[in-house]
Amino acid sequence: MEWREVVEHPSLQDLPFKIETNEWGEIVMTPATGTHSIYQSLINEWFVRLEEKGGRSIVECPVQTSAGTKVADIAWGSAAFFTKHGVRVTSFPQSPEIVVEVKSPSNSLKRMEGKKQLYFEAGAREVWFCDEGGLMHFFNRDGELKRSELFGEFPERIDIDLM
After folding, report:
1. What digits encode the pLDDT tens for the residues 98-138?
2. Residue 155 domain-assigned?
3. How many domains does the chain have?
């Protein structure tokens, strides 16, 4: 199934699941938890603060990969990325510079590692993981980083209990 067909299909509207496609065009759905959603929101808030650096955050960012369309929990794209690809797209043909996946019970580490490689193949400069305790893991193509090379001020841990 093409991504546009998935997005426009009436029976797939208002589902409580995140939808992606795999390399065979099959629809894959994963449910999110409240904790997952809160981490996603807090990371997005950080990205919004970083927009002064000339880019923008993207929640539920669809990226075309060699294994179907993957939907990153959060992403950050530079002004140059949006100049090249626009903002009125069904899915991005390349990955934004930063892609973030938030760990949840339905999103295994093995699946996240596979998506990380796909995002790098699609052009990501960094892929970040947020684990179920809010600890951030930053990666570039060479491996894990102590901090993000693009946004070193990003915290090493997201604390959902400071509300």
Report:
1. 999 999 877 778 889 999 999 999 999 999 999 999 999 99
2. no
3. 1
